[in-house]
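Example 3.2
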Amino acid sequence: MSPGDFEAFVVAVLRSTATSLDNVEVRLHEKIEGVDGVYDFDATVRYSFAGMRFLILVEAKLHRRPIDV
């Protein structure tokens, strides 16, 4: 599985589990502007719950070996 395929798989899993929330939007490679630049996140999840809006940022990595801290 390529890194791009893995990122798409993660987005598919997120979409399939987000059915019980209101206004759920899952995106692949959303660009979000911060105070010091624009960042491309592998996946984002936006949803509403209890009158509040949430944003989850996801970096999906698939490596053959564990990454050192």
